[in-house]
Amino acid sequence: MDTTFAQRRRRDLILALILAVLAAIVPFFVKDVNVQNIMVLTLMWAALSQSWNILSGYCGQISLGHALYFGLGAYTTTLLFTKFGVLPWFGMLGGGVISALIALGLGYPTFRLRGHYFVIATIVIAEIGLLLFHNWDWAGAALGIDVPVRGDSWAKFQFTRSKLPYYYFALVFCCVAWLVTWYLENSKWGFWWRAVKDNPDAAESLGVVVFNSKMGAAAISAFMTAIGGAFYAQYVSYIDPDSVMTFQFSLLMALPAVLGGIGTLWGPVLGAVILIPLTELTRNYLGGSGRGVDLILYGAVIVLISLARPEGLIGLFSRKPASKGVPQ
Amino acid sequence: MTAPLLETRGVWQRFGGLIANSDVSISAGAGEIVGLIGPNGAGKSTLFNLIAGVLPPTQGTIWFNGEDVTRMPAAERCQRGIARTFQVVKSFETMTVIDNVIVGALIRTTVMREARRKALEVLEFCGLAGRADVLASQLIPSEKRRLEVARALATEPKLLLLDECLTGLTPMEAQSGVELVRKVRATGVTVLMVEHVMEIVMPLVDRAIVLNLGKVLVEGKPTEVVRHPEVISAYLGDRHAISA
């Protein structure tokens, strides 16, 4: 069984490699800008959901406030660039570090809460963040900030003529997020997180320092989420509090993972690949007056999934451990 | 005489007005199997939790391996060599049996391959190797009890605390549980077990400590303890004590 475990890990890695190569080739055949846009967003949300999945899926601390970290990433990069001329790459890392630190600061009181109380705390904190940025004049307040166009270059991470550089960055981001999860899944942290999720008391009795495990998961998750926020700011080149920090972003990070399979390696990717194109297409075709139709569709999909496959779509591909699990 | 592996010195635990443990001083020597028995509400589980580090005692100290562990959190005690099982089993339900045990093994190593090897070894020892890849939620109750023990053993404890791990099993299951406990002791691990089913515990333990109403009532060899009039009266009432 040791070999089957190693084989499964290797198979996951090979599958990921194949998918990444395929994803890298796709733009050579797909020239439509709208479709490219959808592909960029799909990869971005897959990566973000993968980040969310670390704290909420593996460690079981359901956060509905990740918009805060997303927004912090977007704002840090943009502010550093517009006010101090710092290149977005450094801004991205800076945003990640700031978000991770804030996640630790917030985790210190909130990780004492369990279950629903924790979820409520995450929502409230993100809303406070939103209000603060709404009223922070130096950061553009409600008007937001335009990222000034300085010409296409990788150094400034700006591309006005083509979406492809963004696409490849999003692809790398998605691959890194997946790899981080893949690595962590079979590490001390990964095991500790799952133990904390399933039963904190039992975990504690086996030497797991529950509080530290949660803090670790929060920091990693927030860091990666902020990278996504920084990328998004560069991609849309205009941010305001409502376009990077609202509750909807928190939901959008959670939904792909929930749909695909929460706490699983492939869940977020699978969920994003289905959900994001679906949203964008409904918005394109039913858009305008049909504001909110995409969200109705989300709701419907989630209801269907929770009825048919409570463990997420990944359950369709499961290797049926149940057949071996029938009690003797 | 060398100092015992575990010692509680004058331990008190109050919950508001309720006194769960009053002035309890017990000990367990290296390699011993000690039974902690007593009727319902005697304070067994409270004492057990104090030793495991779920909560600190109101008063008194707990010593393990020559060190004062009174205020030490559970995870740190586990690091020092105290492992426990739960009366109501607390498996990691969404994880496989072997993954459950790996969590325990990771306290001694961070090398995953090493932890996995150790986990398999422990599962073999506990007779669960055949169920390694099954989800913990799919085990039958007696297997879950074994998993609790396996997980605890994977932390390589010096002292294993068993909380009613033989209660509610069929006689055959209980018998194989008894054998497992003997096997564990044979590896040099001290065992402190809480039980209230006397017939199972008495042949197994080297020494029995009877708690009643939060106090140590009697302590001694199992054969002596069961005949002690105070024990009989605590379990069955005064009338029986007199007739015995």
Instruction: Tell me what the CATH architecture of the largest domain in chain B is.
Output: 3-Layer(aba) Sandwich
CATH T-level topology of the largest domain in chain B: Rossmann fold
Taking pLDDT < 50 over at least 5 consecutive residues as the criterion, the unreliable ranges of chain B are: none
> What are the segments of chain A in which pLDDT stays under 50 over at least 5 consecutive residues?
320-328
Strand content of chain B: 15-25%
Identify the CATH homologous superfamily of the largest domain in chain B.
P-loop containing nucleotide triphosphate hydrolases
Strand order of the largest sheet of chain B: 7-8-9-4-10-11
CATH classification, class level of chain A:
Mainly Alpha
Shape of chain B: globular
Structure notes:
The complex is a heterodimer of chains A (328) and B (244). Chain A is mostly helical and 328 residues long. Chain A has a single domain (8-317), classed as ABC transporter involved in vitamin B12 uptake, BtuC, CATH 1.10.3470. Chain A has helices at 2-25, 33-58, 67-84, 88-110, 116-135, 164-185, 188-198, 200-205, 210-236, 241-244, 247-260, 267-286, 293-308, and strands at residues 145-146, 238-239. Chain A has a two-stranded antiparallel ribbon with strand order 1-2. In chain A, helix 2 (33-58) crosses helix 11 and helix 4 (88-110) runs antiparallel to helix 9 (210-236). The longest helix of chain A is centred in the last third of the chain and has 27 residues, at 210-236. The two termini of chain A are 20 Å apart. The model of chain A is unreliable at 320-328 (pLDDT under 50). Chain B is an alpha/beta fold and 244 residues long. Chain B folds into two domains: 1-79 and 163-244, 3-Layer(aba) Sandwich (Rossmann fold), CATH 3.40.50; 82-156, no CATH class. In chain B, the strands form two sheets. Chain B has a six-stranded mixed β-sheet, sandwiched between helices. The model of chain B has no long low-confidence stretch (mean pLDDT 90). Chains A and B meet through helix 1, helix 7 and helix 8 of A and helix 2, helix 3, helix 4 and helix 5 of B.
